[in-house]
Amino acid sequence: MSFNIGLSGLYAANKQLDVTGNNIANVATTGFKSSRAEFQDVYSASKLGTGSKAVGSGVRLANVAQQFTQGDINNTGNVLDMGINGSGFFVLNNSGSLSYTRAGTFKVDKEGYVTNTDGTSRLQGYGVDANGKIQNGVLTDLRIDTSNLAPKSTSTVSSTINLNSTADVIDQSITANKFDPSKQATFTKQFSTPVFDSQGNQHVMDQYMVKTGPNTWDSYTLIDGRNPDGSDPVATATPPVASTMSFDSSGKLVSVSTPVTPPTVPPTATISNDLKITGWTPGTVTAGVWKANGAAANPEGVTVAMGSTTQFNADTARTIPAQDGYATGQITSLSIDGSGVLLANFSNYQTKPIGQISLASFTNEQGLQPIGGSSWKESYASGIPGFDAPQSGTLGVIESNALEESNVNLTNELVDLIKGQSNYQANAKTISTQSTIMQTIIQMA
């Protein structure tokens, strides 16, 4: 019996050395989770129990438990290197078979899909609709779309403007003072804003501010130096329409009124009371001749927001204008935020979501079945996975340009190695002692 007890101890010590050796071997493996050998003692028993004088029959390996503690996260400088700071697993799809990993060493294949290191499995996440909205709920292969970003025509222009209350009044009843964009003396201030047509062509929208009274200003709007329909306000008898801004005694804007149908308004260019240009025909001017360029304005018109305009005793100036149009853009870089959203940055200064990483969680992580490659499969013991976006519930944060290192504590493993060696030697000694006793008995016979 003593031989069997010693043999079980040798087997257990050998398993402990195997587990320790595997941990040490993977001390530099990205996303690796260390394991721990767990043992139980063994007793021989009958149907009536073991009794009070039973002697143990040795030891057995009960379990090799995986330790899913957090590993250190170190920067790498590669945007597709991702570490999970917290709980959760990346989800990989290999021809319909899902696996789970903490190793975030991803790359892009020739078709643009984000894959694991060996390119056999695709990273899973949520796609986006045509407006860039994340479509949560259905997992899909994440793909980096490198096609150009289509242009968007301008629909709104806004800024905060202050008009100097002490500026000189320009009496437009005098012929010489009639507004003329080519004569600076006929207006107080000019503001220029880039706007875009449906083909991504950039145009310049000019707003000319003319002080006409103590608390009133006129605003003229031209695009490419011309009326919205393309006519020249200087060379033709179709001057631009003035929008009149009225201020109260404290310098706050009271109202903005724009004539809708005076005789001088071009029939194809209508400006509503909210400074909405609805008749703009985009074009180009070559050698002084205007010609439509084949593009169109935003079908909803271009709204020039003037609600933040004030009249204080300060320089006539405005903040940087904001407008929602842009030209065609080529992807220049990729970034990934903490919630796992993949953001494509384009040459036209636009940023567009192209997908979001999904993480999986399990009720019993230690029940996962290791399959190699720092990956696991779900099992009956682990339970089914739950999928959600990073930072949702108990799921961790995605750290791009970084990787989670192995959670192996090398110092502890080296100590365990010494202990395992001592255990092996001690159990071998029990067998050696039992052999000596047996030899003594045989020699007595």
Task: Please count the helical segments.
Answer: 2
Structural class: mainly beta
Uncertain runs: 261-272
Residue share in helix: 10-25%
Let me know the largest β-sheet.
11 strands, antiparallel
Average pLDDT number = 89
Gross morphology is rod-shaped
Query: How far from one another are the termini?
Result: 21 Å
Beta percentage is: 25-35%
Counting DSSP E segments of at least 2 residues, the number of strands comes to 32
Radius of gyration: 38 Å
What does this 3D model show about the protein?
The protein is mainly beta and 445 residues long. It contains 2 helices and 32 strands. α1 (2-25) runs antiparallel to α2. The radius of gyration is 38 Å and the shape is rod-shaped.
Topology (elements, then pairings):
Layout: H1 2-25, E1 35-43, E2 56-66, E3 73-75, E4 82-85, E5 89-94, E6 97-101, E7 107-108, E8 114-115, E9 122-126, E10 140-141, E11 156-158, E12 161-162, E13 189-196, E14 202-213, E15 216-223, E16 242-247, E17 253-257, E18 276-277, E19 283-286, E20 289-292, E21 302-305, E22 317-318, E23 322-323, E24 331-336, E25 341-346, E26 351-357, E27 359-361, E28 369-372, E29 375-377, E30 386-388, E31 397-400, E32 402-404, H2 410-444
Parallel strand pairs: 11-21
Antiparallel strand pairs: 1-2, 3-32, 4-31, 5-6, 5-9, 5-27, 6-29, 7-8, 9-10, 9-26, 11-23, 12-22, 13-14, 14-15, 15-16, 16-17, 18-21, 19-20, 24-25, 25-26, 27-30, 28-29
Helix pairs in contact: 1-2
